[in-house]
Amino acid sequence: MFLTVNGLGLHVQQSGPPHAETVLLLHSLGTQAAIWESTAEALSSRYRILRPDLRGHGLSDVTPGPYSVEGLADDMLALLDALSVAEVHVAGISLGGMVAQSLASRVPQRVRSLTLVDTALSIPPALFWHDRAALVRKDGMEPLVETVVARWVTAASLQSSGAQVLRAMLRQTHPEGYAAAAEAVAAADLRHSVSGLRMPTLVLFGDDDVAPPLSSAEALRDAIPGARLEVIPDAAHIPTMEQPDHVIDAMSRFLESVRAGV
Predict the structure, then answer these.
(1) Maximum Cα–Cα distance for the chain, whole Å?
(2) Which of 76, 92, 194, 208 lies 20 to 30 Å (CA to CA) from residue 218?
C-alpha cells in the first residue's frame, strides 16, 4: 500500500493479524523492505508486520537531500500515526537500525522493544560515506554493486540467489536516494540519543561483518541497559538474507520474552 506521510509517498507492505502487536521492520542503505521477507513471513502468524521502503528507496518517493537519521525516524513516526499504531516493536538493519534507535529515543513510550541488526551508534569515517554519495551522483549505482555486495554477504554466499537479489536491489536504488541516505549515515551519532533508553533490546551481529565491526555491536549493547548481544555465525552485514532461520529464531525468542515480561 501507499501512504502519504510528511509530504512523502511511502510504500509499505503489511501482513499478519491487523489487531495483533505490531512489528516495524526497517531495511538497510541501498536495499528495500524485501530483505525482511523471510522474517516477515515467519512472524506474521503472531504479529502485525509493517515493512516500509525508507525515503529514497524501493517504491517510496525519492526526495532531494539532505536526509538525516532523525528525519527518517520522523517518517516512521508519521507512518505509525497514520495507521493508528500506539505501540510497536522495532527492528532495523544497519541504516534501519540507526533509524530504529532514533525513533525509540524520540518516542520511548511507544517502542516496546528494539532489535538492532548489524548496526551501530555511528559508522565512521564520514568521508567514506561522502565519497560514496559523490560517486553515485556522478556515475550511478553500477560502480558500487560488486564492492558493496561483497561486504553485505560472506565470500561463500557471493553467488547465491540471495546475493543476486541484493545486487538487483542496489541497482534499482535511485542514486539521489542512496546518496542522501549515505550522507545521513555520515552525520549520525546516536550515543547521546540512546543513553536514556530502557526498553528490551536485542543486538544481532553477523560474525563476518566488518562495517560496522563487532566492537560497534558491543558498544551498542553496552549503551542500552539490559541489552543482549547475539552473534550470528556464517553471516556478514545482512543476515536476514544469508542466515534467515537464525534471525527468525533469535527474534521469535526475543519477542516472546518481551511478551512474557522476562
Answers:
(1) 51
(2) 76
Give dist(CA 37, CA 122) in Å, integer. Answer: 26
C-alpha cell at 42: 515467519
End-to-end Cα, the chain, rounded Å:
35
- Interacting residues of 97 by C-beta distance below 8 A, sequence separation 6+: 26, 91, 116, 117, 118, 119, 120
Closest C-alpha among 172, 85, 182, 88 to residue 130: 182
What pLDDT score was predicted for residue 262?
Answer: 65
Is residue 171 within 8 Å of 36, Cβ to Cβ? no
List Cβ<8 Å contacts ≥24 apart for 95-98.
95/26, 95/27, 95/28, 95/29, 95/54, 95/69, 95/119, 95/181, 95/184, 95/185, 96/25, 96/26, 96/27, 96/28, 96/54, 97/26, 98/69, 98/123, 98/185, 98/188, 98/190
State whether the Cα torsion 55-61-66-70 is positive or negative: negative
Is residue 66 within 8 A of residue 181, CB to CB? The reply is no
Contacts of residue 207, defined as CB under 8 A and 6 or more positions apart, other chains included, come to: 214, 231, 232, 233, 234, 235
Q: Give me the pLDDT at residue 260, please.
A: 82
In sequence order, the 6+-apart residues with CB closer than 8 A to the CB of 205 are 117, 118, 214, 217, 229, 230, 231, 232
pTM comes to 0.97
74-114 per-position pLDDT tens digit: 999 999 999 999 999 999 999 999 999 999 999 999 999 99
Alpha carbon separation from 129 to 38, 49, 72, 84, 113 (Å, rounded): 29, 31, 17, 35, 29
In the chain, the amino acid numbered 126 is A
Task: Find out whether 236 and 148 touch, Cβ atoms under 8 Å.
Answer: no
